[in-house]
Amino acid sequence: MGKFNYIDLIATLGIEDAHPGGFDLTKEMMKFLPITSNSSVLEVGCGTGKTAQYLYEEYQCSIDTIDMNDRMLINAKKRFNKKKIPINIFQASAEKLPFQENAYDFIISESVTSFTNVNKSLSEYARVLKKGGYLLAIEMTTEKPLTLREQRDIQDVYGISKTRTVKEWEHSLIKAGFGEYKIIRGETIVNTTTKPMASLPFDKLPAEGIELLHKFQKLILRYKDILGYRVFLCRKQR
């Protein structure tokens, strides 16, 4: 069993909307996608399945989801079974998607790609998207290039070896084949409003989980003006 990490933390606490802006941002951003009942959608990093459920209830489209975390997959499967919605779940990595080329009209990634090898994942998204298909990515950014110490602090909490500036994200998107893109929302953590969460089951956290939670809280305060997010709306070149 590996070291207790940030994904384990949010999975254990049952946090469904860990990204800045929460589910309100998710719903608002979906309006930018021309999804119909005939669309095929892939959600990368489905977590507990909340976004996938929303998409199916809104559009009755075909949806595949992937995640790597066992606990997240169990919770998502329970959600889909309870709601009796036909969403497919796969345990897979964004860096090696188990799907054919040109399979999807839309790919959605909410604070997931940042936790992977970004260039590998973006190349995989471009591979499985149809020509003219859309990628919507809500991803972590930094407002300036980081010092080695700053990157170590962030890596110690999130496990991300490289936190990208907007320019670095843009470079990676273009390299992967998403030359057509725009930023439709973005903020620093300090300027992001998120609804307070309901009571969380902190008693379920192991000692290392509590330690990681304290580190996370300190990190957010220390880097509130440096850490942020951007919402990238990208289209695979036709």
Name its key features.
238 residues, alpha/beta, seven-stranded mixed β-sheet, globular
What does this molecule look like?
38% of the residues lie in helices and 23% in strands. By secondary structure, the chain is α/β, with parallel strands linked by helices. The chain has one domain: Vaccinia Virus protein VP39 (Rossmann fold, 3-Layer(aba) Sandwich). A seven-stranded mixed beta sheet has the order 3-2-1-4-5-7-6, with helices on both faces. Helix 5 packs across helix 7 and helix 6 packs antiparallel against helix 8. The radius of gyration is 17 Å and the shape is globular.
- The topology string of helices and strands comes to HHEHEHEEHEHHEHE
Q: What percent of residues adopt helix (DSSP H or I)?
A: 25-40%
Q: At the third CATH level, what is the topology name?
A: Rossmann fold
- CATH class type: Alpha Beta
Q: Mean pLDDT, rounded to whole units?
A: 93
Roughly how many Å is the radius of gyration?
A: 17 Å
- Distance, first to last CA: 44 Å
The main pleated sheet reads as:
7 strands, mixed
Shape: globular
Structural class of the secondary structure composition? Answer: alpha/beta
Second-tier CATH architecture: 3-Layer(aba) Sandwich
- Strand order within the widest sheet? 3-2-1-4-5-7-6
Low-confidence stretches: none
Quantity of strands, as a count: 7
